[in-house]
Specification:
Number of helices: 7
Number of strands: 2
Strand content: under 5%
Strand order of the largest sheet: 1-2
Largest sheet: 2 strands, antiparallel
Distance between the termini: 39 Å
Structural class: mainly alpha
Helix content: 55-70%
Order of helices and strands: EEHHHHHHH
């Protein structure tokens, strides 16, 4: 488990004993592989923790480190180095998948800063959050109507019936909710810039906004998923 934004802790290389950053996969002095690091995912790639990430640099670093961790390079290495190469590779892949995806990256960095994000936290009272409800207030009525239509469609399909009007209504609802997802993503990207450039107070306010946006996105995404599955069943 990577530690929370604690990538500047010096540790001694097991091979040459020279101190180095504990987030590195290889010793910068002797180039020997190191045990799985203790820093955050950003530090694994040598990147500054931020939301508006340079994806080109992320990909470059990923492929560079992947080549260095290739099993063929450790065919004659000590057993512990072989094990570390496997563990480091698994960590590298997980870090890359997390940081490459804009939503996972946002959730990850906010969690590093103490934000409560995810289904298990949705609907909980959050300090200083005005609307902690899992269901966005402006979508309550539409979500209720949509769920009723989904149930009607499921029952109709079980009976072997088709309802073109109901199907069209669900397709239109999906199109609308897809648009709402685009709106949320646009608002999130705007908050990235506030977060990356802001002072501590600005970041705290931005974090609250992004947590709310992520809750909203999760809920709308679930509705889109349900409509897609029901129409495709």
């Amino acid at each position: 488990m990577l530690k929370v934004l604690d990538s500047a802790v010096p540790v001694a290389c097991w091979s040459c004993a020279v101190a180095h950053n504990d987030a590195t996969l290889f010793c910068p002095h002797c180039s020997k592989i190191q045990p799985p690091p203790g820093g955050d995912y950003f530090s694994v790639f040598g990147l500054v923790p931020q939301l508006d990430l340079d994806l080109g640099m992320l990909e470059h670093q990923f492929h560079k480190l992947s080549r260095k961790l290739h099993p063929d390079r450790f065919a004659r290495a000590h057993e512990k180095e072989k094990q570390w190469s496997l563990a480091d590779t698994a960590l590298l892949n997980d870090a890359y998948r997390t940081l490459k995806d804009p939503i996972r990256r946002t959730e990850y960095l906010l969690k590093l800063h103490g934000a409560e994000i995810g289904e298990e936290h949705a609907g909980k009272d959050r300090k200083d959050q005005k609307d902690p409800s899992r269901v966005p207030a402006d979508l309550l009525e539409e979500a209720f109507d949509l769920n009723m239509q989904l149930e009607e469609m499921r029952m109709a399909k079980k009976m072997g019936d088709t309802d073109p009007d109901l199907q069209l209504s669900l397709q239109q609802a999906k199109k609308k909710f897809d648009g709402l997802l685009d709106d949320v993503d646009r608002d999130l990207r705007a908050q990235w810039k506030v977060w990356d450039a802001g002072c501590e107070n600005a970041r705290q306010e931005s974090q609250k906004r992004m947590v709310g946006l992520l809750d909203r996105r999760r809920y709308i995404g679930n509705l889109v998923r349900d409509v897609t599955e029901t129409l495709g069943a």
